[in-house]
Amino acid sequence: AMMLSQGSPAGGVYSGPGVTGAMFDPAAAGVGTHTLTYTYTNANGCENSATRDVLVAPTPTVTMGELANVCVADAPFALTVGSPAGGTYSGPGVSNGIFDPAAAGQGPQNIQYVYTNANGCTDSASTTIIVNPAAIGFHLPVPDMCTNQGPTALTGAIPPGGSYTGPGVNGTTFYPGQVGPGTYTLNYTTVSVSGCPIEFSTTITVNAVPSVSTSNFANTCASASPITLTGASPAGGSWSGAGVSGGSFDPSVAGAGTHVLTYTYTDGSGCAATSTSTIVVEPAPSVSLNTVSNACVAGGTIPLISGSPAG
Fold this sequence. Notes:
Layout: E1 2-3, E2 13-15, E3 19-20, E4 23-24, H1 26-29, E5 32-41, E6 47-56, E7 63-64, E8 70-71, E9 77-78, E10 82-83, E11 88-90, E12 94-95, E13 98-99, H2 101-104, E14 107-116, E15 122-132, E16 138-139, E17 145-146, E18 152-153, E19 157-158, E20 163-165, E21 169-170, E22 173-174, E23 182-191, E24 197-207, E25 220-221, E26 227-228, E27 238-240, E28 244-245, E29 248-249, H3 251-254, E30 257-266, E31 272-282, E32 288-289, E33 307-308
Parallel strand pairs: 8-15, 17-24, 25-31
Antiparallel strand pairs: 1-4, 2-5, 3-4, 5-6, 7-10, 9-13, 11-14, 12-13, 14-15, 16-19, 18-22, 20-23, 21-22, 23-24, 26-29, 27-30, 28-29, 30-31, 32-33
């Protein structure tokens, strides 16, 4: 409603659609052109009046559509949900019709839209946009690996369920043999429960395996004494195989045949390598000696011929 003060001289009476006392209510009058009358009576009882038309224009119908949730790190974007087009947006993070999530800050933000039509009538609407906070994640340390280690599943990312990129990576599996010795950065990407991206990285160290060598052993006999195993480099590793106990080889335990002995060495980084040697164990001959007849001291020399095989 608006105060009517246009009548002169003061002290008269206003009348017409939407008029109550000296107040004009456009909503009560309704849309259209209305004639308002001002009547004045002087001290002599003489009366006169004047009229004036007033146009009540319709108020525009202004609406705002919904705004999808955004992340605080999202890029600024143009607001286009206000109708009719051509109005003005305002609110936290809004400048020249552009909404900047980082400038607005996290949480629900109220955005207003004001539109004025050609008649100068104004209406407004508002909506809420939720700015989700930046998501935070971390990665547990990845144990060192060795170049001869097989494909290894990558775990330890919080939150889980994302994907890795980087040298030697395929999906969530890391292949140490594809990259060689060195320290590598793996990038991890996933999405938070609110739909905001999470990105961080972790490092993984791949160590070279030691160079290990051995030499073959000379043939031995099944009845021979245990042999100390030597000739492996670098020193400090361990032997394994048939007949091996500690650092020695017992032919009688291994038995006749060709045996492969394995030498394993583990370096300070925990990487292990092996080398193999062969040793041939010859079977002991089957030897027999038949009974030798009793003899007399003065009986002379007796040839010993009952041993078998001859020689």
